[in-house]
Amino acid sequence: MTRLDARAARRATREDRRVVLHAHRAGYLALRGITRLGRVVRVPGLGVVVSDAARMREILLDPGTYSKVGPGGSDRLWTPIIGPRGLLNMDGAEHAHLRRKLTPLFSQKFLRSIVDEVLTPEMDGFVAAVARHEDVDVVTVIERAAALIICRLTGYPEDDAAAQLARAREILGFVTLTTKSFTDAQLAVIHEKLAVLNASTRTAYRAAAPGTVPALMRAEGITEDDTVAVVTAMIVAGTETIVSFAPRFTNLVVESGHLDHLARHPEDVPAAVAEAMRVTVPSPVMIRSVLRDDRVAGVRVRAGERIILANIFACARAGDFDPSRPVPKEMRQLWFGAGAHFCIGMPLATLEAEVFATALARAAEAGRIGVRARVRKQRTMAASYSRLVIRAERPA
Ligand code: HEM
Asked: Residue 283: its pLDDT value, please?
């Protein structure tokens, strides 16, 4: 593999750090300061902050000691929205049972249909616009793809995809890195938006609308209410993450110069995507509640305490963007979590990311791609750009 220019890779990585800083200024600076003090640090009033990949994985693989449900756990945030059975706020046997039923959902057949019917037409349009040497906003491209996928998940008509995405975003717009609960006024707005998303899920479920997730879940024997909860969880967990990733990936590979390599070697796209996931960590932090006293790297943690798994800082310990070497073993896939709550949407997320990255590599055949405009998002849950305009230079 072509070696990267280390200075360009450093500049690209630093720009990605600025994207995160813009999204969560106070939370990011505080956590960065804490993680510089050590890999496991107790912060009175906040909890125990862990930023070591191996320790994080041990915690994630020990659900008997560290749970998503309990004091300080993230269930307090999500249960009023998705109801008590939305996967990401469950634990134990019931959680395992529901997950088992969902496993066949992201089958090769289903993923293939998403690629063929949703992503390929969108990406062909994207590559053609770049080939015409137009200015193309990558954020618009990935948002539209994400919106169409929400329609698939909820069974909503695709001609109104943008409205469905806007509703999903408004729900997520209330969450920041430090949100512990919602106000009554916020909950009222969230429930109003959710009512529309949930109504289309119920309609698709009842009609067993072919090719939609609600119909697939019904075929697995999952109840209507559980389907609504899980689909909502998928929208919450799976929309802004991919909309965060694709523009940041674009900036990393363009600014580091790696896109030129990918244009010649599209077979290296999966490695570039994995390394960019390590650098960007679109879901930057995970939270657990301690169920029984334990020790993490010598630090005592007590039942009832909160554990903050600062994933983005743990993964940053491997340094700047460098797809020429494998992701360090202890970090592998950690951006999707580990153990019982490991991202159930990982096959879909990886597919979306790789299909997008392949399209970008194909687009680069039209000429060297440069970033023409870049607007970072301010104060959002999912760090990203609100605009990232690229253009392929005309060959001299
Ligand atoms: C780049 C994209 C994505 C990233 C980085 C990501 C990351 C994560 C992480 C870190 C977790 C574990 C959280 C924890 O243990 O506390 C998680 C869980 C989850 N993700 Fe993803 N995700 C992505 C895309 C998606 C997509 C596309 C979907 C759905 C279609 C999805 C659905 C879910 C669900 C439902 C859970 C909860 C699973 C459970 O609690 O059992 N995610 N994700």
From this structure: 92
